């Protein structure tokens, strides 16, 4: 069994210990301030002497300090110093405390049980509740959670005997066989938990729900707190400032400015399509009606525009109308139609002869041809339609 010192003092950053065993992957010592992975929270990073510890796992009461690099030259009985990466641990305690508060409020206000929890190494959390919560309900939980931070409640972890625990209400995700360790935040939460905790809620700083989605009949939240929430805020502020600068508006006005831009973009797109249709209609009117197939190469049209064009030009031929855009090197996008034939019936004959691919319906087929302009023109000059 490893003595887990963080259970008594969550602020312990280092401790002296005696090496008990060194394996291919892990160091075992008699006592440690490292938190081993558990309850969805990753194990603490840090060092033992100058050996880098990347993770810690608890197996049968023994903390396995997983090291990086070559096997360290420790022998059983050596005295060493265990030192955690305090910045990472503190950020994770901020996140963990936020999870207690949000889960406690979700339970007391809306009867939701926390049924899943995961924290990534940077303290960003996914929290699952078994009941769906609306955006409005989540906003009220978020506000109340931050108010709990502002009131700076004490966070108290205490081991209860089974007899004492029987008279105390607490949330629990684990079945404690004996003497549960109950973490209490006054008027907010009471929960059985074995992780290290801050001594008061004020140190959490800020709690922010970043997103929510329906999940297995309930809801999954992405949650950030403390340092994680600050980094998220700093990033999003920088993005808003940068977008604001590009649009010449304040960061708080970027939302309205972007929606105005999207609307204007749609208007321009409609205008462009209307002008293209006018231009193509003019070109069509200048084209004589013919029994020969009509093949037109037009610059810089996308597939949708080619489909529009072919439906305009097709009335000028009693054969097949094909409109293309591209170049000899990259090949040509095309749309094919006819007032007389079901073009779908011979589209494969055309695409296989011109090294292309495509698809569509009886009235219009579109796709891509990997042949040069001269080959395409020659093909349609000689093409005899047989509907299959
Ligand atoms: Zn906890």
Produce the secondary structure layout.
Elements: E1 3-4, E2 14-22, E3 26-29, E4 31-32, E5 46-48, E6 51-59, E7 62-67, E8 79-84, H1 86-110, E9 114-119, E10 125-129, H2 135-151, E11 155-159, H3 162-165, E12 181-185, E13 189-192, E14 207-215, E15 218-225, H4 226-247, H5 254-285, E16 294-297, H6 303-313, E17 321-327, E18 331-337, H7 347-353, E19 356-360, E20 364-369, H8 373-382
Parallel strand pairs: 1-4, 16-17
Antiparallel strand pairs: 2-3, 2-8, 3-7, 5-6, 5-8, 6-7, 9-10, 10-15, 11-12, 12-13, 14-15, 17-18, 18-20, 19-20
Helix pairs in contact: 1-2, 5-6
Summarize the structure in words:
There is one protein chain. With 388 residues, the chain is of the alpha+beta class. The chain is built from 8 helices and 20 strands. The chain has helices at residues 86-110, 135-151, 162-165, 226-247, 254-285, 303-313, 347-353, 373-382, and strands spanning 3-4, 14-22, 26-29, 31-32, 46-48, 51-59, 62-67, 79-84, 114-119, 125-129, 155-159, 181-185, 189-192, 207-215, 218-225, 294-297, 321-327, 331-337, 356-360, 364-369. The chain has a 6-stranded antiparallel barrel with strand order 2-3-7-6-5-8. It has a 5-stranded mixed β-sheet with strand order 16-17-18-20-19. Helix 1 packs across helix 2 and helix 5 packs parallel to helix 6 (303-313). The longest helix is centred in the C-terminal third of the chain and has 32 residues, at 254-285. The model has no long low-confidence stretch (mean pLDDT 95). The site of zinc ion has 6 residues, from helix 1.
């Amino acid at each position: 069994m490893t003595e887990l010192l963080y259970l008594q003092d969550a602020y312990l950053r280092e401790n002296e210990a005696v090496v008990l065993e060194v394996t291919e992957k892990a160091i075992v010592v008699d006592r440690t301030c490292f938190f081993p992975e558990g309850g969805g929270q990753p194990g603490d990073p840090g060092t033992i002497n100058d050996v880098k510890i990347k993770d810690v796992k608890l197996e049968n009461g023994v903390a396995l300090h997983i090291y990086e690099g070559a096997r360290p030259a420790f022998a059983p009985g050596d005295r060493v110093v265990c030192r955690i990466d305090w910045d990472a641990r503190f950020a994770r305690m901020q996140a963990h405390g936020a999870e207690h508060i949000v889960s406690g409020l979700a339970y007391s206000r809306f009867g939701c049980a926390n049924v899943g929890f995961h924290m990534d190494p940077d303290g960003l959390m996914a929290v699952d509740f078994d009941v769906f919560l609306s955006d409005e309900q989540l906003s009220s939980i978020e506000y109340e959670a931050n108010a709990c931070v502002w009131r700076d409640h004490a966070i108290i972890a205490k081991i209860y005997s089974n007899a004492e625990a029987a008279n105390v209400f607490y949330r629990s995700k684990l079945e404690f066989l004996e003497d549960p360790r109950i973490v209490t935040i006054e008027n907010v939460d009471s929960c059985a938990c074995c992780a290290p905790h801050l001594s008061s809620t004020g140190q959490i700083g800020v709690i922010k729900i970043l997103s929510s989605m329906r999940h297995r009949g309930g809801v999954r939240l992405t949650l950030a707190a403390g340092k994680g929430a600050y980094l998220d805020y700093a990033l999003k502020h920088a993005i808003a400032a940068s977008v604001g600068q590009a649009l010449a508006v304040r960061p708080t006005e970027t939302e309205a400015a972007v929606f105005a831009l999207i609307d204007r973009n749609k208007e321009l797109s409609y205008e462009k399509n209307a002008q293209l249709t006018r231009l193509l209609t003019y070109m069509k009117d200048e084209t004589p009606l013919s029994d020969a197939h009509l093949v037109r190469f037009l610059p810089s049209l996308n597939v949708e525009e080619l489909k529009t064009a072919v439906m305009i030009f097709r009335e000028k031929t009693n054969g097949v109308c094909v409109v293309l855009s591209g170049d000899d090197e990259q090949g040509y996008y095309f749309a094919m139609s006819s007032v007389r034939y079901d073009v779908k019936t011979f589209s494969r004959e055309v695409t296989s002869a011109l090294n292309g691919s495509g698809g569509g319906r009886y009235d219009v087929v579109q796709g891509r041809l990997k042949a040069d302009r001269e080959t395409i023109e020659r093909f349609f000059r000689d093409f005899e339609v047989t509907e299959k």
